[in-house]
């Protein structure tokens, strides 16, 4: 077996030995003492032939709790090594949204085969979630929620909760509906338990419920849950009937996915790339367009340097400061870009907000530029003893940084107007653009003052 370098090594090794000897009772005794996450770690470390034995060692219900902790790669291993009949039973014990999430993300699973082997009721729930557009509220919601009738008493609700509560994703919010399933309000578990038994749900429920439509973008759903500090958010059909809920743990996954997606695009990598699974050829093919575009922009930068060749030949020392000016402007522009993209991602898109952001970034850029200019003038004076050179460097830094902060704020908004994800106004693009502007500013000032150097 694989060596485990953790404090639980001795316990893990006993489990590995039990699996090796096909000792089901000992395996179960040791394995079920662990937390679900640690059980997942054990499964990950097992060799393929030992993974296949899990179907003999654990019930489908027991394994379903472990399966939910796994990443997609380990889940695919489980489906590959374990019998289809066993995995279908595992899916029957899982929340429909977790099954749908796996089937959506897995590229190696025969979805239709497993769905056909599941219980019809559970299979229908999963297929409903799969039918919604990706990255919408419908695609990430869970069907396991508790709805109660507005005419029920608290005693009746508590009795029903004891019967079906263990099947729900959460019991802290109870959703009040009418006879047609339309959402009327929400009742918290706290209010339910603290009320007398003969009070009706209608008199206790909170009717100002925050909800989303089934086709709402998942990023907007995550933002609403964060803004209202909710544990779960009801998802409604177009007629107002309740279809499911999105829970805060689902939102954490969404936020992680969105951050990863924005980070990839910020780096000039296309949406939806998964470098763990993508071949080198596909990765290169997907990244190449931005690199080619940046090559042409780079040629513009090279042309500018050639254009001011006479200036450089006259005062060679000017070349030493080119990387510093380009790098500083690019860094400031990327920082402003990050602020602008964040504001757009939280729907902060009104005109006043845009000008406020630009003003703030420009002011911050000027302050940074002044500080950097003073520092550079001092350094140049000490090292080179040339006040004019210090003024050229200082003025160039100040103007380049100020312009870069505005560019980083404005470019994402312009791109967003064309219905393109603003994250594609990525760091490399902003850096290259600011390099060009920085060089123009630098050489223009240097050329105008070259006679004083």
Question: What does this entry look like structurally?
Answer:
With 453 residues, the protein is mainly alpha-helical. It has 3 domains: 9-135, MgtE N-terminal domain-like (MgtE N-terminal fold), CATH 1.25.60; 147-260, Roll (CBS-domain); 280-452, Orthogonal Bundle (Tetracycline Repressor, domain 2), CATH 1.10.357.20. It has 23 helices and 6 strands. The chain has helices at 9-20, 24-31, 36-45, 48-51, 54-57, 60-67, 72-81, 84-92, 96-105, 111-117, 120-131, 137-140, 154-164, 189-193, 201-204, 218-228, 248-266, 280-307, 309-314, 322-345, 351-384, 387-417, 427-448, and strands at residues 147-149, 173-177, 183-188, 212-213, 232-236, 242-247. A 3-stranded mixed β-sheet has the order 1-2-3. Helix 6 packs across helix 8 (84-92) and helix 21 (351-384) packs antiparallel against helix 22 (387-417). The longest helix has 34 residues, at 351-384. Mean pLDDT is 85; it is low at 1-5.
Write the layout of secondary structure elements.
Layout: H1 9-20, H2 24-31, H3 36-45, H4 48-51, H5 54-57, H6 60-67, H7 72-81, H8 84-92, H9 96-105, H10 111-117, H11 120-131, H12 137-140, E1 147-149, H13 154-164, E2 173-177, E3 183-188, H14 189-193, H15 201-204, E4 212-213, H16 218-228, E5 232-236, E6 242-247, H17 248-266, H18 280-307, H19 309-314, H20 322-345, H21 351-384, H22 387-417, H23 427-448
Parallel strand pairs: 1-2, 4-5
Antiparallel strand pairs: 2-3, 5-6
């Amino acid at each position: 077996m694989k060596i485990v370098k953790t404090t639980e090594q001795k316990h893990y090794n006993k489990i590995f030995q039990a699996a090796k000897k096909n000792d089901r009772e000992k395996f179960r005794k040791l394995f079920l003492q662990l937390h679900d996450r640690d059980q997942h770690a054990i499964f990950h470390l097992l060799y393929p032939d030992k993974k296949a034995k899990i179907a003999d060692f654990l019930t489908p219900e027991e394994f379903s709790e472990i399966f939910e902790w796994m990443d997609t790669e380990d889940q695919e291993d489980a489906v590959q090594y374990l019998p289809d009949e066993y995995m279908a039973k595992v899916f029957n014990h899982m929340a429909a949204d977790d099954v749908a999430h796996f089937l959506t993300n897995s590229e190696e699973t025969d979805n239709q085969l497993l769905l056909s082997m599941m219980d019809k009721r559970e299979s229908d729930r999963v297929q409903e979630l799969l039918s919604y557009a990706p990255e919408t509220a419908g695609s990430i919601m869970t069907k396991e929620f508790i709805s109660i009738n507005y005419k029920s008493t608290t005693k009746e609700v508590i009795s029903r909760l004891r019967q079906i509560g263990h099947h729900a994703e959460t019991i802290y919010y109870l959703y009040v509906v009418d006879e047609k399933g339309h959402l009327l309000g929400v009742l918290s578990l706290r209010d339910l338990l603290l009320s007398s038994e003969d009070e009706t749900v209608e008199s206790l429920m909170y009717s100002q419920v925050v909800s989303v439509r089934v086709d709402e973008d998942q990023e907007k759903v995550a933002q609403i849950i964060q803004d209202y500090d909710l544990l779960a958010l009801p998802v409604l059909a177009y007629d107002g009937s309740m279809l499911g809920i999105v829970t805060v743990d689902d939102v954490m996954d969404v936020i992680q996915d969105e951050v990863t997606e924005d980070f990839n695009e910020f780096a000039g990598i296309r949406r939806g790339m998964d470098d763990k699974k993508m071949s080198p050829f596909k990765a290169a093919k997907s990244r190449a367009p931005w690199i080619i575009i940046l090559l042409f922009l780079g040629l513009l930068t090279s042309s500018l340097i050639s254009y001011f060749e006479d200036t450089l030949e006259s005062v060679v020392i000017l070349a030493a400061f080119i990387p510093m000016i380009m790098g500083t402007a690019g860094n400031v522009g990327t920082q402003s870009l990050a602020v602008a993209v964040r504001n757009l991602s939280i729907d902060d898109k009104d005109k006043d907000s845009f000008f406020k952001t630009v003003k703030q970034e420009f002011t911050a850029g000027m302050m940074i530029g002044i500080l950097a200019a003073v520092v550079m003038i001092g350094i140049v004076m000490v090292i080179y003893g040339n006040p004019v050179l210090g003024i050229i460097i200082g003025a160039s830094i100040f103007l380049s940084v100020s312009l870069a902060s505005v560019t980083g704020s404005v470019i994402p908004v312009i791109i967003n107007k064309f219905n393109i994800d603003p994250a594609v106004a990525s760091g490399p693009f902003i850096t290259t653009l600011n390099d060009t502007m920085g060089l123009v500013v630098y050489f223009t000032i240097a050329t105008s003052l070259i006679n004083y150097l």
